[in-house]
Design a protein that fits this description.
Largest sheet: 6 strands, mixed
Structural class: alpha+beta
Distance between the termini: 20 Å
Oligomer: single chain
Number of domains: 1
Length: about 100
């Protein structure tokens, strides 16, 4: 079963065109408009970021950080995310392969 809902911002308001998709068997995804930005795997908590879209805009990154906060990643910014990618804590891949 798949569940889709609009994400909420720091003030608790729903955000248009920004979605959290929960595949109750495998993973939770963050989708911005028509692009998957991030995936967090249920099995091991591994974070995957789309190599092309995770840093598409300041707004996308703000919503990404908010999404990842739900998995215990507080205080993220682009410098920290790039460090996590370099160290292998976050992995990049093409999440929008059709």
């Amino acid at each position: 079963m798949i569940k889709v809902r609009n994400i909420t911002n720091a003030n608790g308001n729903t955000v248009a065109n920004q979605f959290e998709i929960v595949d109750v068997d495998n993973a939770t995804f963050f989708q911005s408009y028509n692009s998957i930005i991030a995936e967090v795997r249920d099995s091991d908590g591994q974070v995957y970021l789309d190599e092309y879209y995770w840093d598409y805009s300041v707004t996308t990154m703000r919503h990404l950080y908010n999404f990842l906060r739900g998995f215990g990643y507080d205080g993220l910014n682009s410098k920290i995310v790039r460090k996590y990618i370099k160290k292998g804590k976050f992995k990049t891949t093409n999440l929008n392969v059709v």
